Amino acid sequence: MVNRANKILLDIFVYTLWISRCIATAKERIPGSIDNYVTGVSECSQQSDNLKDNGYKP
């Protein structure tokens, strides 16, 4: 029989797997949005930097 401490550890493990799967699914459905949120870089700022690199002056 599983004691209480082992059950808690098992619950944490299963919850961690569930969360990581949710994140992986979100990344597949919305390419770039999760990574950009985590790194703090938005698609708009990347495009703005690209324009500046090409000599664009806002």
Describe the protein.
With 58 residues, this protein is mainly alpha-helical. 76% of the residues lie in helices and 0% in strands. The protein has 3 helices and no strands. The chain starts with a helix and ends in a 5-residue tail after the last helix.
Radius of gyration: 20 Å
Helix content estimate: over 70%
Low-confidence stretches: 42-48
Label the overall shape.
rod-shaped
Number of helices: 3
How do the helices and strands follow one another from N- to C-terminus? Answer: HHH
Features:
rod-shaped, 3 helices, 58 residues, single chain
What secondary-structure arrangement, pairings included, does this model have?
Blueprint lengths: L3 H26 L3 H7 L3 H11 L5
